Amino acid sequence: MILSQGRRYVFVHIPKTGGTALALALEARAMADDMMLGDTPKALKRRRRLKDTETRGRLWKHSTLADIEGLVPDEVMRGLFAFTLVRNPWDRAVSYYHWLREQSFDHPAIGLAHRLEFRAFVQHPEIIAAFRGTPASSYMRHADGTEQCQLYIRLEHFRDDAQPLFDHLGFSLELPVVNESGRQRDWRAYYDDAAAEAVAAACARDIAQFEYSFNDSLLSR
Q: What's the mean pLDDT in 136-156?
């Protein structure tokens, strides 16, 4: 999460969408008083600035808009250009699974990822419920339910979708390549029909809103 009063924006980082790359691009042009949460270099250095700030929810890398209420006055927050990255859900599920398998802290999803092969993992009731309960819009809502998002940027179409952000900032951004894994780039190979349908049903809202398909081309950013 990055909140910049100087440039009048707030970036909400939805997990496994390429948000670290965008955070790095944004912090390369950061202003001195930008507020940052995450594990990028400047965010780690500035984290202590927010140590005693009272907010509605947890302050961390993937805070929602509702979580960060209190960082700035409400009228300031609602006047910011709010944006986020989204990603093809079938691709995102593969990324999520591989990331979980590299983790060792105590979390139910990590245990499932270590015990189950991918197709069983995405069909597990707990994973389906987690996907269904956290569409992209859920990150962009205030505690009163009001959605604030001037721009959803599809990772696969970054250059085109991000143009309104570039217009707002007054400069363009390029996404660096970070957090690459050894997974296959074509996500379709990980699925059978049942697994693909499970993700389709659980992520139906995002698929419809952002016009995703299981057979989307793998476009360069």
A: 98
